[in-house]
From TrEMBL, chains A, B:
Main location group: membrane
Membrane topology (UniProt): Multi-pass membrane protein
Entry-linked InterPro entries: ALMT
Lineage, highest ranks first: Eukaryota, Viridiplantae, Streptophyta, Embryophyta, Tracheophyta
Name under which the protein is recorded: Aluminum-activated malate transporter
Domain of life assignment: Eukaryota
Annotated localization: Membrane
Gene Ontology biological process terms in this record: malate transport; monoatomic ion transmembrane transport
Alphabetical list of PANTHER family matching this protein: ALUMINUM-ACTIVATED MALATE TRANSPORTER 10
Length: 473, 473
């Protein structure tokens, strides 16, 4: 806008009038014009921002259509609840509080099945528990006479609300019942206080509970039947995807260093950063996955916690890749001859480690022990052995004199300082391979535990088989 | 329990009876006894768990009494709302929907001022906006005739709920208006549907909005007057605390390596892990701090986002400390002579870098540019120079032969492999000091921005001064 104004003031506009002379067109420099220009600028700026915002939203929807589907699901569930309210007979059945059903749908509907189930179960259980308690407190209060009644109710609300709020800070309660504790306080307060005025206490409780059950059942039906997104499945895919990224980053970084190519896909190289930042989402997904019934290849009580251990192992690898990356981008570069000396073995280590991670990803994907992982780890170890030997023989290339930089060309030897970056890189690579072995261990544990759970479930699902076995005894 | 049972079955109890012989006391092995033992075990196990849980809760409360205060605040606010409901005159004023006030208090009350303000403002604005929109839609629906009315209402709910849900996925909306979008859907649906039945539409909207305003004002009063916890202050202290931890870890790790002492406090050494895992809480605090008015030394629009940059710089240092830690705990240890050779300069680098970080923490704490930080960075750089020289002269200690392990004692020279761990450690230390310089930059930016904001606020607060300046012109 400012530049437009300058242009207006810089150029002089002339107009040829009838008598042949020309007149200077003085631009209207009054207040009105300034206001107009400023307003125009503001509006065009706003228009630009809105357009950017809409583009961002469109891209997000196009990149992940499941988000759009989720929105349609929410709209669907809410519209169905409205229909419940429109239909007279049902409306008479659940009372004028159909609003509770709407509220339940809005509050409880989450993108994944696990999160929705967690909220539904917490809501129903906490409402029932708080309702019963509130009725009890109300009975005690009504026995204590008109004068003490408000005090009893007030004190009970104060004490229970404080305790329930405190419980929300305790990690074990927070992870399982955070939402339930809030609903408990809410229901208890409303029922206890309403009880003071409204005498139809049981009616209120019955209405609230039945509408909430209608709302939650509707949510569960919609979320599980219309394109369900399972937290467990998401956690599983995230783990596999992160392993692939880790493997690509590791291989890409080392290859870029030794081949000096800048052709590597930068997004691929930075993939390890996703691993660094996915702790919070992994934890919440594992938390919600516990609430999900069997789906796909995952049984109820699938070892979801093991995914967190795998995530931690992956992050410990990613920290090292971050250090590796800083070696690569550092100002002090190793001498070319040193790079050449180490390149074969380093590339072998990185490619074998990254294929080991790829194989682990495959193993998690298929949820069975990979037949080739032991072989790959062995290969990685033999590559490490080779790297060790190359490092040992590095001293031959070394110039023992500290100030002999001018002798280099003559002898082909390298001053000690120019060895350091490559040696650092190599020893970080060695550390990464140690951490990959830990990753192998945690993946194997996951596969073993999941197979064990599968067997238990299979046993429970075949009671005839168990009966026969018992008869034989 | 199991071991107790074994003991019972293993030892034979005899009792001497009157005639001199002794009788074997057969333990009651019936079903009843087994059930009793199992029940006893279950109960004692449960009791143990409950005791552990209570101990954990007690410790949590004792470690952070502010959590207990928060719980009392929630109880207090809820009890006051109940009093509002108990007092007839006010009750008649806000109608039978005093329940909405209770609900608002329960849902909106968060541990920090920022989070509570965020929810309060979102709730009030979204309720008003959705209320007006719903009244408009209801008017259009009522104009379209009895047959189409449900369709118009249903379609509007479907469309608006879907769009609002979608907007919650967009990062910029999510960080500012996530809660507002949910309340918008809720209020719009309830008002639009209730409009179909209840004719007193404006009454409903008026009631809901006035009760919500009562609830939110009460929450804001209680949260800001009774021992307030400010998100901004928390973020500030977390940043300072994390810097101190980073500095302690860095210094402790290097000192433990070179002095071989295991006396270092392990908790201090692991402090950098807090830095690694505090990204999520930093982000949410910075998000809530934006909603807070001026408090303490922080003005409204204090550059909270800059804290996130500082956090990122700290994490990049912490990644390197993690790599450093793995060097220290690695199996391959450097030869003692090498360690001795590098120890002085490495210790100097680590102590100067860690005192630079400590000084940065002090600078953030006092929110002014430290006068000594430049000096400390210079000191760190000269220590680095020394380390460089020590590394260069390392080649003198090196045994050029690769298989000459038996010659070591004779010559005092060290094989190349035993140099590597110390060299790696040194080069990671160098990398850490590079990252500390980036940290210095981001802290200085924070201090500068905050001083700038202070000046702007000081200007705005002195309108007389501005007036005088204008008169002079």
């Amino acid at each position: 806008m400012a530049s437009g104004k300058e242009l207006c003031e810089g150029v002089e506009w002339r107009i040829r009038v009838v008598d042949g002379s020309s007149e200077v067109l003085v631009p209207p420099t009054g207040l009105a014009r300034k206001v107009w220009l400023r307003t125009k600028g503001l509006i065009s700026g706003l228009g630009m921002k809105v357009r950017m915002f809409l583009k961002q939203a469109w891209d997000m929807g196009a990149n992940d259509p499941r988000k759009v589907i989720h929105c349609i699901k929410v709209g669907l569930a809410l519209t169905i609840v409205s229909l419940v309210y429109f239909m007279r007979p049902l409306y008479d059945g659940v009372g004028g509080n159909a609003m509770w059903a709407i509220m339940t749908v809005v509050v409880v509907f989450e993108p994944t099945v696990g999160a929705t189930l967690y909220k539904c179960l917490n809501r129903v259980c906490a409402t029932c528990l708080a309702g019963f308690l509130a009725v009890g407190v109300h009975w005690i209060a009504s026995q204590s006479g008109d004068r003490f009644e408000p005090f009893v109710v007030g004190a009970s609300i104060f004490i229970l609300a404080s305790i329930a709020t405190f419980s929300r800070f305790i990690p074990s309660v927070k992870s399982m019942f955070d939402y339930g504790a809030m609903i408990f306080i809410l229901t208890f307060s409303i029922v206890a206080i309403s009880g003071y005025r409204v005498d139809k206490l049981f009616d209120l409780a019955h209405q609230r509970i039945s509408t909430i059950i209608i709302g939650t059942s509707l949510c569960i039906l919609v979320i599980m039947l219309v394109c369900p997104i399972w937290s467990g499945q998401e956690l599983h895919s995230l783990t596999v995807r992160n392993m692939d990224k880790l493997s690509d980053s590791l291989d890409g970084c080392v290859r870029q260093y030794f081949t000096n190519s800048n052709g590597e896909d930068d997004q691929k190289l930075q993939g390890y950063k996703c691993v660094l930042s996915s702790k919070a989402s992994e934890e919440s997904m594992a938390n919600f996955a516990r609430w999900e019934p069997s789906h796909g290849r995952f049984n109820f009580r699938h070892p979801w916690k093991q995914y967190l251990k795998i995530g931690a192992s992956m992050r410990s690898c990613a920290y090292c890749i971050e250090a590796l990356n800083s070696c690569i981008n550092s100002e002090n570069q190793a001498a070319e001859s040193i790079k050449k000396h180490l390149s074969t073995s380093c590339l072998k280590v990185s490619s074998s480690s990254s294929s080991a991670i790829k194989e682990l990803a495959e193993s998690v994907k298929k949820m069975n022990k990979s037949p080739t992982i032991d072989l790959l780890v062995e290969e990685m170890n033999s590559a490490l052995e080779e790297l060790h030997n190359d490092l040992k023989s590095l001293s031959h290339l070394l110039n023992p004199s500290t100030t002999a930089e001018n002798q280099i060309s003559a002898t082909g030897l390298v001053p000690f300082m120019e060895i350091i970056p490559a040696v650092t890189l190599a020893s970080i690579l060695i550390e990464i391979s140690v951490r990959i072995e830990a990753l192998v261990g945690s993946v194997e544990e996951l596969v073993k535990e999941s197979e064990m759970k599968d067997k238990i479930v299979a046993k429970e699902e075949k009671p005839e088989g168990t009966m026969k076995a018992l008869q034989r005894v």
